[in-house]
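Case study 2.
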Amino acid sequence: MLCDHAQVASGKLFISGAGIDHMQIPAGTSAPYVITFATAGLVRVPWTATNTEHAVTFKLLTEDGQDPPLPEGGPRGVAGEMKFNVGRPPHMASGDSQMVPFAFNFQGLPLMTAGRYVLVFSLDGNEERRLTFTVVLQPSAGFPGTSFT
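Prediction:
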């Protein structure tokens, strides 16, 4: 899910401001448009997949599958990875699974264009989920055809 902030502590996932699908940029702001958000989720690890290294990866793309437009001189893309390996506790039965929480926070991400973006999540190289959001420029608050003196 997309949210304002997410954190994993003591094996628990803490989420604030969940359910984001639009990020508004104030009228009159010029590029780069700086956004801050987080993404969080849970990976279910079945008994048969314990004691093995796994990786959750994400990549930010435009809606047409391209790397996002970022300021020149900065990184070319936005991506990340979390590797994990969960053991098999003695009380775990063969049909049980374990939950592994994850959180990625994006603080001050500079995008050069407004529009739709997609976060693509994969688990062990297999795409599992896509989360979309739109960066929107707020309309001007002025009244067309009027001026104040």
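The beta strands are 2-3, 5-9, 12-16, 22-25, 33-46, 54-62, 78-84, 97-111, 115-123, 126-137.
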